[in-house]
TrEMBL record:
<dbReference type="GO" id="GO:0009251">
    <property type="term" value="P:glucan catabolic process"/>
</dbReference>
<keyword id="KW-0326">Glycosidase</keyword>
<dbReference type="InterPro" id="IPR002772">
    <property type="entry name" value="Glyco_hydro_3_C"/>
</dbReference>
<dbReference type="Pfam" id="PF01915">
    <property type="entry name" value="Glyco_hydro_3_C"/>
</dbReference>
<feature type="domain" description="Glycoside hydrolase family 3 C-terminal">
    <location>
        <begin position="126"/>
        <end position="334"/>
    </location>
</feature>
<dbReference type="Pfam" id="PF00933">
    <property type="entry name" value="Glyco_hydro_3"/>
</dbReference>
<keyword id="KW-0378">Hydrolase</keyword>
<dbReference type="InterPro" id="IPR036962">
    <property type="entry name" value="Glyco_hydro_3_N_sf"/>
</dbReference>
<dbReference type="InterPro" id="IPR036881">
    <property type="entry name" value="Glyco_hydro_3_C_sf"/>
</dbReference>
<feature type="domain" description="Glycoside hydrolase family 3 N-terminal">
    <location>
        <begin position="15"/>
        <end position="88"/>
    </location>
</feature>
<dbReference type="InterPro" id="IPR051915">
    <property type="entry name" value="Cellulose_Degrad_GH3"/>
</dbReference>
<protein>
    <recommendedName>
        <fullName>Glycoside hydrolase family 3 C-terminal domain-containing protein</fullName>
    </recommendedName>
</protein>
<dbReference type="InterPro" id="IPR001764">
    <property type="entry name" value="Glyco_hydro_3_N"/>
</dbReference>
<dbReference type="InterPro" id="IPR017853">
    <property type="entry name" value="GH"/>
</dbReference>
<dbReference type="GO" id="GO:0008422">
    <property type="term" value="F:beta-glucosidase activity"/>
</dbReference>
Length: 342
């Protein structure tokens, strides 16, 4: 993977430099990095100006020096790379101001930033089902309900809400940063007299209780890059089973936390009263309850086709066989008249 670090205007003119991805050079041979000098000469001669070498940097310097001295990499290519890198550093003022402005740290994650993130959450939610009966929609939920059951692996997991590239490369589970889980948000949004019961994987005894409705939040664990590759695309952590077990006893809103469409089994979608694709809402769970309890309207539309079965993939609008579960651009609202594109 390559990155163009800095580009200015001009026809076919790149006034920046090209940087490789982390350990990308190693992938030019199999086994990876087995012929490191070949990797270096191929990449540098192809136009890579800066190389991300996190571990083998001493060997990289020794091998690149050898390649230049042997003539396999011309010194003019090195000069070209250095010139490009220095130009960007000069233009960006890096030599005058080599360090970041630490006085700005206090505003990172400030209230204004979190309010903007919360707004982004509520505008990105996609309502896929709003009730079993179109004449009697299940949403919005009643915040003054007597008793609410909250369940699912993702209801109270900030790390799962944030996904990969959060705190660490692959993300994590639990309270990995400051924020509000969806469970936190439900408790904050519910009325003073509303009892919120939380059971991640509800037992028979829990399901035997009396509830006005349930909110089940399921989804994927955090991932990044190829570790997120998934040939099955089913909801992990027995998510479909949890939704089914709850819907058999209690009217249910299901919320899916994921970075992509997942398989929605017909019987699950049929049983559930309402279904929301929340994607990866990050730290601001209140953005979800803002919409679920009716303070704001649903605005999100599917940025991709939602398939019925993984066997349909890849699928795109315009294909003769295009038969999606939900088409590109789909998204319901509370008020059908308000958004005719529904």
């Amino acid at each position: 993977m390559l990155y163009v670090a800095y580009v200015t205007s001009g026809e076919c003119s790149v006034q920046g430099f090209v940087i490789s991805d982390w350990e990308a050079l190693d992938r030019l041979t199999e086994p990876r990095g087995s012929n490191y000098r070949y990797c270096i000469s191929t990449a540098v001669n192809a136009g890579i100006d800066m190389v991300m070498v996190p571990l083998r940097y001493k060997q990289f310097m020794d091998d690149l020096t050898f390649l230049v001295e042997s003539g396999e990499v011309l010194m003019s290519r090195i000069d070209d790379a250095v010139e490009r890198i220095l130009r960007v550093k000069f233009v960006s003022g890096l030599f005058e101001y080599p360090f970041s402005d630490r006085s700005l740290l206090d505003i990172v994650g400030c209230k204004l930033h979190r309010e903007l993130a919360r707004e982004a959450v509520r505008k990105s939610l996609v309502l896929l089902k709003k009730g079993k009966n179109p004449e009697n929609p299940f949403l919005p939920l009643d915040r003054t309900a007597k008793r609410i059951l909250v369940a699912g692996s993702h209801a109270d997991n900030l790390g799962y809400q944030c996904g990969g590239w959060t705190s660490t490369w692959f993300g994590g589970s639990g309270r990995i940063t400051i924020g509000t889980t969806i469970l936190d948000a439900i408790r904050e949004s519910a009325g003073d007299k509303t009892e919120v019961i939380y059971d991640e994987c509800p037992s028979t005894n829990t399901l035997a209780g009396q509830y006005s409705f349930a909110i089940v939040v399921v989804g994927e664990p955090p991932y990044a890059e190829t570790l997120g590759d998934n040939k099955e695309l089913v909801i992990p952590f027995n998510g479909s089973d949890i939704i089914s077990s709850v819907t058999e006893k209690i009217p249910t809103l299901a919320i899916l936390i994921s970075g992509r469409p997942l398989v929605l089994e017909p019987q699950v979608l049929e049983k559930v009263d309402a279904f929301i694709a929340a994607w990866l809402p990050g730290t601001e769970g209140r953005g979800v309850t803002d919409v679920v309890f009716g303070d704001f309207e649903f605005e999100g539309r599917l940025p991709m086709t939602w398939f019925r079965s993984k066997d349909q993939l890849p699928m795109n609008p315009g294909q003769n066989s295009y038969d999606p579960l939900f088409p590109l651009g789909f998204g319901l609202t509370y008020n059908k008249e308000k958004k005719p594109q529904e």
